[in-house]
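Hi R.,

As promised on Friday, here is the backbone we talked about, encoded as C-alpha cells. Could you run it through your design pipeline when you get a chance and send me back a sequence?
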C-alpha cells in the first residue's frame, strides 16, 4: 500500500512539473555541468547550470560526476523516460560544490521503481542538502515538515541496491534518511565526513535479525540540527521512528551535541540543546563533541540522549566514548518509564574521571 501511495504521489507531482523534468543522456561525457548531457526528450537542455528549484532530474543509467553547485526539485536514479532503459547508476559528488534537492516534494531517491539495479551515491567532498521548502521562492523549509527524504531503496526488494557512501570532507544534510525497508538491499556507509541529521534516521533494522543491520557510524561525525530552521543549530532527532533500530558507533566516529540553556536553568531538550532519541541496541565508541551556544557555569547539565524501551520489551547497550571534552562529565541516569538518559554535566576544570559512568556500559531493562 505504501508503495502504491508513494508512486501515485510522484506521478501526480510529475504531472504538475512535467515541463521541467530533465533527463540525463550523457551524450557528451559524464560531467554534470555539461549542458549537452541533458535532454528531456522534447526540449533542449537547460541553457545554464544551476537548474531551478522546479526542475527535476532523472538519470536512467551510467556514471555522473557532479562538479558544480546545482539545485533541483528531486533526483531519481535508475529512472528512465518513457520507453527508455534503466540500469545501474553512479552519482559522484566529489568537488567543492553544493547540490540542493529542495522542491516541495523534497525527495532524493537513489533507487526508483525498477528491480535488479545497483545504484551508488558517493559524497566524498562538497555538500548534499535534501530538504523541503515552503514555496519555490522560499529557500527555507516550512516549520513542522521535516520530510526532505534521502531514500536508499524505493521498491522494497533485495534485488535493488541503493548504496550511499559518505567519506572524506563530504557533508550530507538531510531531514529524513530512510533505508526504504530494513530488509531491502542497499547500505549507508559513513566512512568519513559529516552527516547532519535534522529529523529522522529510519528503517535500518536490528543487528539481532541480521549482522549487517543497524545504522552504523564509522569514521563520520553525526551532527544534530533543527529541520524547522536551516540556520538553527539546536535540533531533535529520532533514530528509528516508532520502531527498533540499532545504532552502532565505532572508535573513529564522532557525535556532536550543541548545548545552550541547561536543564537546571529551565532549558528544554530539543529547543535549548540537542536531543537524540533511539530505541533498540546501541554501541558507544569514538569521540563525544560539544558546542556551547551560551556560557555554561559549574553544575549545568543537559540530557542529550534518551534510550527508550524497544518493541520487544528490552533494550541493551555497551561501550564507552574514547574521548570526552575536558570540561564535560558523562553519566547514565534512570529517568523512569523504561528510559535511560545520557546526561552531560559541565565542570569548570579538566575532568580527571571523564569516562566515569560510561566504561563498559551494559544495560538491559524490561519494558514498563
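Update: got your reply. Pasting your designed sequence below so it's all in one thread:
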Amino acid at each position: 500500500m505504501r508503495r502504491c501511495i508513494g508512486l501515485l504521489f510522484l506521478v501526480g507531482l510529475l504531472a504538475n512539473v512535467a515541463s521541467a523534468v530533465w533527463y540525463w543522456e550523457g551524450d557528451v561525457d559524464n560531467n554534470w555541468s555539461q549542458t549537452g548531457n541533458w535532454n528531456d526528450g522534447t526540449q533542449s537542455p537547460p541553457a545554464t547550470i544551476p537548474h531551478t528549484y522546479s526542475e527535476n532530474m532523472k538519470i536512467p543509467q551510467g556514471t555522473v560526476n557532479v562538479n558544480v553547485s546545482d539545485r533541483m526539485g528531486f533526483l531519481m536514479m535508475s529512472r528512465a523516460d518513457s520507453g527508455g532503459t534503466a540500469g545501474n547508476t553512479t552519482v559522484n559528488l566529489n568537488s567543492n560544490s553544493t547540490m540542493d534537492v529542495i522542491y516541495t516534494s523534497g525527495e532524493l531517491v537513489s533507487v526508483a521503481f525498477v528491480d535488479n539495479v545497483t545504484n551508488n551515491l558517493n559524497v566524498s567532498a562538497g555538500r548534499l542538502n535534501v530538504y523541503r521548502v515552503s514555496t519555490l521562492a522560499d529557500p527555507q523549509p516550512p516549520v513542522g515538515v521535516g520530510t526532505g527524504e534521502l531514500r536508499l531503496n524505493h521498491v522494497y526488494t533485495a534485488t535493488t541496491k541503493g548504496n550511499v557512501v559518505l567519506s572524506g570532507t563530504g557533508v550530507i544534510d538531510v531531514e529524513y534518511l530512510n533505508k526504504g525497508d530494513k530488509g531491502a538491499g542497499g547500505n549507508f556507509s559513513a566512512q568519513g565526513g559529516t552527516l547532519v541529521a535534522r529529523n529522522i534516521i529510519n528503517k535500518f533494522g536490528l543487528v539481532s535479525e541480521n549482522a549487517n543491520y543497524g545504522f552504523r557510524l564509522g569514521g563520520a561525525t553525526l551532527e544534530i540540527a533543527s529541520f524547522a530552521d536551516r540556520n538553527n543549530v539546536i535540533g531533535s532527532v529520532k533514530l528509528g521512528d516508532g520502531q527498533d533500530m540499532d545504532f552502532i558507533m565505532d572508535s573513529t566516529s564522532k557525535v556532536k551535541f550543541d548545548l545552550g540553556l541547561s536543564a537546571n536553568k529551565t532549558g528544554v531538550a530539543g529547543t535549548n540543546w540537542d536531543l537524540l532519541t533511539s530505541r533498540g541496541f546501541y554501541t558507544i565508541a569514538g569521540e563525544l563533541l560539544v558546542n556551547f551556544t551560551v556560557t555554561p557555569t559549574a553544575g549545568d547539565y543537559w540530557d542529550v540522549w534518551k534510550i527508550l524501551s524497544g518493541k520487544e520489551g528490552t533494550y541493551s547497550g555497551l561501550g564507552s566514548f574514547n574521548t570526552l571534552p575536558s570540561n564535560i562529565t558523562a553519566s547514565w541516569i534512570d529517568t523512569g518509564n523504561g528510559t535511560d538518559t545520557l546526561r552531560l554535566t559541565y565542570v569548570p576544570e579538566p575532568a580527571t574521571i571523564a569516562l566515569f559512568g560510561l566504561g563498559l556500559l551494559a544495560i538491559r531493562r524490561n519494558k514498563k
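One thing I noticed while checking it: The chain has one helix and 28 strands.

Thanks again,
M.
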